[in-house]
Specification:
The chain is of the alpha/beta class. The protein has 23 helices and 16 strands. It has 4 domains: about 110 residues, Hemocyanin, N-terminal domain; about 160 residues, Malic enzyme, N-terminal domain (Rossmann fold); about 190 residues, 3-Layer(aba) Sandwich (Rossmann fold), CATH 3.40.50.720; about 90 residues, no CATH class. Strand 3, helix 10 and strand 4 form a beta-alpha-beta unit. One of its GO terms (molecular function) is NAD binding.
Length: about 600
């Protein structure tokens, strides 16, 4: 993939908001000198330190004489990156760079975003997680142990003062990126998600914390590997597991009361349950449940605009009713309810969920998960109608929208797409399963079978498709266009909760950026290369929704929309070198000592 794309540089900062604690204008206080400064990824500039900084911070004998710009450093780093023999080696190179120079790491990705996204995240990050114990060089993040619950509070406390942490990503490693139970290696998904929050929304990297809850693992390969670094025991469950999770949550809330907690890649039986338990208590989020649902709903809204169908009239079939599928169902249901005034129960009647036994029915009883129950249909409505396979359901429902989260490849067959196309003018078809080998259908086949009528979005990037000489862009339902902006909005507003209304506001803000609104041949969602601008719009919408519901604890939020936008921009961390100002260690903050966030503990 081409690496020539250059992401839009950050907008000029506005001094009127330079007094804010998260302001990104002006110099950075730094108490480190000499080799300690060069060893701090937060402050290190390598050959980019100015002549004055080299004298002030005792670096003159530690660096080559030629002072280089960040652009020159990026050029050198990209040349080094390009020599790595495979994607996993490139991922490892980037990890090393992150541990040496934060600004250079993020700037390199920004300048080559299209090329590097799959290296720093899925699918290559999945390979890195599977090989975590074999590639291990330096610990990053916080490791909590289910056999040592009494130490959870103390172990979390070393990462900063109450006001120092804004964003926590936590996983138990049970269901990682479609590759299953990876035990302690799950720490890397927490790290990767935080990289995306910084890259895509400017959440300050030294104010974040990656956490893994080591509950053991049911992965026999890991249990039998002498190099495996996690607990060598079967994965805990039940009361012991719940107590561990709760101890973490309560400790995190007490230690870092302003932090937003992002749950990531928990197993099917726990993800929704944990989210439902803590969501009424604090600002928290699960990307597998809510993020996937939000970005998919935004794509649906854009598709409905193109096809001229109202949200309250559409019929949706979701094929694959696990965490992602039911998360999407919930987001769509809640949006229908908000738009129409219907109850959630009535809104749910516009969705048909299909899983291994076919259409979910009330008679499936105990086989239904907690998240599936609201979408189970009355058996009497389908007496004499086959509901055991997808094609039969399509014939019965005649949906406008078909969503795949099944991880069952090639299940959106020619017959399925043709049947759907025979009932609606512009079928909306989203094969979202990842990685690409698991997608339900190839976009070019969907386009061909629907005779160019289908509006398509996928879970991975695909090239444009064509029919009768006309080209159509394939949108990618990339959660990274959505969850970072939501998190930024919660962080800046210091919202007590992340409400349904705030999520719907985020979805509408993302949908409003759809290129298809201006040209139906364009993608239903904006490209990830524009993600920082998208995040500004999403954060602004989330902040306003938080204010409308009285959930914001930040009271100095500007009233005007233009001022709010600049207020948001000023507090977004940029991959650029800021001047350093020497301060004494005696009076320095933990930030000035380089002791905040995941990079702060050696």
């Amino acid at each position: 993939m081409s690496s020539t794309h250059k992401q839009t540089r950050p907008h000029e900062k506005h001094p009127q908001f330079g007094h804010l604690p998260l302001s990104t204008s002006g110099p950075l206080d730094c108490a480190l000198v000499g080799s300690a400064l060069c060893n701090s990824p937060h402050f290190n500039k390598g050959a980019g330190f100015t002549a004055e900084e080299r004298r002030t911070f005792k670096l003159t004998g530690l660096l080559p004489q030629n002072i280089q710009s960040l652009d020159q450093q990026v050029k050198r780093a990209y040349q080094q990156y390009s020599t790595r023999q495979d994607d996993l080696a490139k991922n490892t190179f980037m990890t090393s760079m992150k541990n040496q120079n934060e600004v250079l790491f993020y700037r390199l990705i920004q300048d080559h975003l299209k090329e590097m996204f799959s290296i720093i995240y899925t699918p290559t990050e999945g390979d890195a997680i599977q090989n975590y114990s074999r590639l291990f060089r330096r610990a990053e993040g916080c490791f909590l142990n289910i056999n040592d619950v009494d130490r959870v509070h103390e172990d979390l406390a070393q990462w900063g003062e109450p006001e120092d942490i804004d964003y926590i990503v936590v996983t138990d490693g049970e269901e990682i990126l479609g590759i299953g139970d990876q035990g302690v290696g799950g720490i890397l998904i927490s790290v990767a998600k935080l990289v995306l929050t910084t890259l895509c929304a400017g959440v300050h990297p030294n104010r974040t914390l990656a956490v893994v809850l080591d509950c053991g693992t049911n992965n026999e390969e890991l249990l039998n590997d002498e190099l495996y670094l996690g607990l060598k025991q079967k994965r805990a469950s039940g009361e012991k597991y719940d107590k561990f999770v709760d101890t973490f949550v309560q400790s995190a809330r007490k230690l870092y009361p302003r932090a937003y907690i992002h749950f990531e890649d928990f197993g099917l039986t726990n993800a929704r349950r944990i989210l439902d338990k803590y969501r009424p208590q604090m600002a928290c989020f699960n990307d597998d449940v809510q993020g996937t649902g939000a970005v998919t709903l935004a794509a649906i809204m854009a598709g409905l605009h193109v096809s001229n169908i109202k949200l309250t009239d559409m019929r949706v079939v979701i094929f694959g009713s696990g965490t992602a599928g039911t998360g999407i169902a919930d987001q769509v249901r809640d949006a229908i309810a908000a738009d129409s005034g219907k109850s959630k129960e009535d809104a749910a009647k516009q969705l048909w969920c299909v899983d291994k036994p076919g259409l979910l029915l009330k008679s499936h009883g105990d086989k239904l998960t907690h998240a599936q129950i609201p979408y189970a249909r009355e058996d009497s409505d389908y007496k004499g109608t086959s509901t055991s396979d997808l094609l039969s359901v399509i014939k019965a429902v005649k949906p406008h929208v078909l969503i795949g989260t099944s991880t069952q490849p090639k299940t959106f067959t020619k017959e399925v797409i043709q049947e759907m196309s025979s009932h609606v003018d512009r079928p909306i078809v989203f094969p979202l399963s990842n990685p690409t080998r698991l997608h339900e259908a190839d976009p070019k086949d969907i386009n061909e079978w629907s005779k160019g009528k289908a509006l398509i979005a996928t879970g991975s990037p695909f090239p444009p498709v064509s029919y009768n000489g006309k080209e159509y862009e394939v949108a990618e339902c990339n959660n990274s266009t959505c969850f970072p902006g939501i998190g930024l909005g919660c962080v800046l507003s210091r919202s007590k909760l992340l409400s349904d209304k705030m999520l719907v506001a985020a979805v509408k803000a993302l949908a409003a950026q759809s290129p298809a609104l201006k040209d139906p041949c364009k993608g239903l969602l904006p490209d990830v290369s524009d993600v920082r601008e998208i995040s500004v719009h999403i954060a602004r919408a989330v902040i306003r929704a938080s204010q409308e519901e009285g959930l914001n604890m930040e009271t100095e939020i500007p009233e005007g929309e233009e001022d709010l936008e600049e207020w948001v921009r000023e507090q977004m961390w940029d991959a650029s070198y800021r001047p350093l100002r020497l301060v004494s260690k005696e009076t320095a903050s933990k930030d000035a000592k380089g002791q905040l966030g995941s990079a702060g503990v050696e």
